[in-house]
Design a protein that fits this description.
By secondary structure, the protein is an all-alpha fold. It has one domain. The protein contains 4 helices and no strands.
Length: 161
């Protein structure tokens, strides 16, 4: 799901100058926005499954209650019909419980990946190596040196040297 963003983060791990880092970080932020939207869609799907599961459980309870009433008065035809419907709703409940469990696992994984990539982006933007908690001083120094050399060359041209 987040492969594009991960690939962009890998590009950042190479020694980039500050201007290139800024340009690429914009694309990464945009990819993070899309990833956040995907996570929100997953949350909505989980909520929809929870709502359907609640309705099916309520229907199953109602059918079983009616089946019990019919058995109390000796209405075997209603008991048989209620049994068929109870089996159908029990299967739906089991399927929706499985679906809900899988959706929850998928959402948990996606949220974890999003959080990891978001942290890596913050580290990269701040000049840190995305895989460690210490600043990427080599890239920062190389960027500053490159910038200083360009400014010095520009000053020399302006002064006529």
């Amino acid at each position: 799901m987040f492969d594009e963003l991960r690939d962009t983060l890998r590009t950042f791990t190479s020694r980039l100058d500050p201007y290139e880092r800024r340009r690429l970080s914009h694309g990464m932020r945009e990819a993070l926005v899309h990833a956040k939207l995907a996570v929100n869609e997953m949350r909505a799907a989980v909520a929809a499954t929870e709502a359907r599961l609640s309705v099916e459980r309520a229907e199953l309870d109602t059918i079983r209650r009616r089946q019990g009433f019919a058995a109390d008065i000796g209405d075997t035809e209603t008991v048989d019909i209620a049994e068929r419907f109870a089996l159908q709703h029990a299967e739906r409940v089991a399927m929706l419980e499985s679906k809900h469990m899988v959706q929850q696992q998928e959402l948990t994984l996606a949220e974890r990946e999003y959080d990891t990539m978001s942290d890596e982006l913050r580290r990269v933007v701040s000049g840190m190596d995305p895989r460690s908690s210490t600043p990427d001083r080599g890239a920062a120094r190389a960027g500053r040196e490159s910038d200083a050399e360009a400014r010095l060359a520009d000053l020399k041209r302006q002064m006529g040297r």
